[in-house]
Write a structure and sequence with these properties.
The protein is of the alpha/beta class. 54% of the residues lie in helices and 11% in strands. It has 11 helices and 5 strands. The chain has a 5-stranded parallel β-sheet with strand order 2-3-4-1-5, sandwiched between helices. The protein binds adenosine-5'-diphosphate and magnesium ion (MG).
Length: 263
């Protein structure tokens, strides 16, 4: 068979295998290979690396789209000087994603607007960048989805989609008091992920001692904390809100109720 026929058949094979990115690169790679007198192995390596990279990038894009992350907040844009309550070294260690490989949890505690969601999303995006699947929900959305799924007899789908994620982010725990069924469902979710050694990142504006205020039953609260804390990294932020801090740094007056203009 002549070289031209081989070339045509390779093109056809790549098309049949739907390796369109490789098909696009074929001519220029062959040309570079012959110009630089490269080996056949070099050529295959280049062609397949291109394909693998392309496939990985598509997976990352799909994982980001499906993650439910509501807003892009990266760890790079987190200002540690503005929030001295956040240990940079702990965040850097978490950013290595060892916690995902070890199936550890990350608990981010602190009052509102201190950067809990920012950090949770930053870590989640880092995990996505490295090819992991993430599922992000606020507790409020989790409970709503639970109630709908229960009504439609689809709870097993919900459990499997939460369990499929390498990292499950549960944001805004602490804002609502849970009813018994909702709390039992939450326990089941956390317990299933614990048994499967899969990471959960949870943000809560209540300290551990106050968790009983959100759950209807102290036994359940203890069991939930037990599962969450068994393999856990805690970031406990005890600072001012980010906005308040910025006001202070810029020497702007804090808006106290007396200073709010009245009509
Ligand atoms: P929380 O979840 O603790 O209520 P957020 O993460 O939603 O707070 O933070 C509120 C806003 O302030 C967000 O826009 C967030 O990006 C920003 N923010 C908070 N802390 C920091 C920080 N240390 N550096 C940069 N942005 C911050
Ligand atoms: Mg938040």
């Amino acid at each position: 068979m002549s070289e031209a026929v081989h070339y045509e058949r390779v093109q056809e094979h790549l098309e049949n295998l739907k390796l369109f990115a490789s098909l696009n690169e074929l001519a220029s790679l062959l040309e570079a290979g012959s110009r630089e007198e490269r080996s056949v192995t070099w050529f295959l390596d280049e062609l397949l690396t291109g394909k693998v990279t392309h496939r990985f990038e598509r997976r990352v894009a799909a994982n980001l789209r499906l993650s439910g992350i509501p807003i892009r907040k990266t760890l790079d844009t987190f200002d540690y000087e503005a929030q001295t309550g956040v240990p940079k070294r702990t965040v850097e260690e978490l950013a290595t994603l060892r916690f995902v490989h070890n199936g550890e949890n990350v608990l981010i505690l602190g009052p509102t607007r201190v950067g809990k969601t920012h950090l949770a999303i930053g870590l989640a995006l880092k995990a996505i960048e490295h090819g992991h699947k993430v599922y992000f929900l606020t507790l409020h959305d989790l409970i709503n989805k639970f109630r709908i799924a229960r009504e439609r007899n689809k709870l097993h789908y919900m459990h499997s989609s939460i369990l499929r994620a390498d990292v499950f982010v549960l944001d805004e725990v602490g804002f609502q008091v849970l009813e018994r069924d909702d709390a039992a469902f939450l326990f089941e979710v956390i317990n299933k992920r614990y048994v499967a050694s899969k990471s959960t990142i949870l943000t809560n504006n209540k300290s551990y001692g106050q968790w009983h205020e959100i759950f209807p039953d102290s036994v359940l609260t203890a069991a939930l904390l037990d599962r969450l804390l068994h393999r856990a990294n805690t970031i406990n932020i005890q600072g001012d809100s980010y906005r308040l801090r910025h006001c202070k740094q810029a020497r702007l007056p804090d808006l106290t109720p007396q200073e709010v203009p009245t009509k």
